[in-house]
Design goal:
Blueprint (H helix, E strand, L loop, with lengths): L1 E3 L4 E3 L14 E2 L3 H5 L9 E6 L14 E6 L1 H10 L17 E5 L3 E9 L2 E8 L4 E9 L1 H13 L3 H19 L2 E7 L7 E6 L2 E2 L2 E2 L3 E7 L9 E7 L5 E8 L5 H11 L4 E4 L1
Parallel strand pairs: 14-17
Antiparallel strand pairs: 1-2, 1-3, 4-5, 4-6, 6-7, 7-8, 8-9, 10-11, 10-16, 12-13, 14-15, 15-16
Length: 268
Amino acid sequence: MRYCASCKIVFDSEDEACPYCNSKLIEFEGQELLSNLKERPDLKLSIELRGVSEDFEYNGSPTTIKLEDKSLEEALEIFSRLPKSYSGVNRHEGKSLVSMAIKGDDEVLLITMLKCDDYYVAGAIKNTNSYVLLSQSANSDRVMEIIRSFYLKPHYLKIVQQSKIERLDALLNFIDHIVLYHKKSRFGRESKAVIDRRSIAGIPLRDVIEIEISKGSKAFSSPSMKVKYYDEKGSISELKLNITRKNNLPLYHRFISKLLPGKIKVRS
């Protein structure tokens, strides 16, 4: 299986790129393999700061301050010395927020202070250009826990990412149905159809021959789903639906793949 970090969906294929966004797909190895890696307490990583002076005072500067490689304890000390709020400071729009980047060989941890003791924490996996959200609102204590994990656990971001994959996959196994938002004609009204464990838009799963999803284009055509199936007379029929919620395409793809493995394909 392979995973698209942009669409946040797993594909049962050996394709190199996501059929929806063309991002490089990540090999989904499973969390157990990575969790068995040994901790690395002596690791030193490079650190970059923005929005502060060399004395760690807030100045809103976009200039990057590059520090030499630091140990875990040194990184925690640097974070503790950064400003903890913007109170009393005239922080004009366009000025840089206080941020800290910790760079490993394959992964980068990104910490940005949004307001008093409130941080946005994310990471990037270099070889796949994928982005991993760790917390939209973390306090200082939580950020320090994340820094410790980033230093001590090899492939920490990949472990977090694959945990999210497994939770989404478990959710798709658990839920009974997904609502398909569509129009039967390009200029008609939006309607709702149900994809469930018995049928797709009213067509029994046992009668479905093939499903083709077309991504469409912004200028000329909307995303669509074409279902080829055996009708009540035993003849081959087609149902084409123009999908109105483009962001749901990967979710439809993954859910249908679980219901009808090998019967769904994507066309540009």
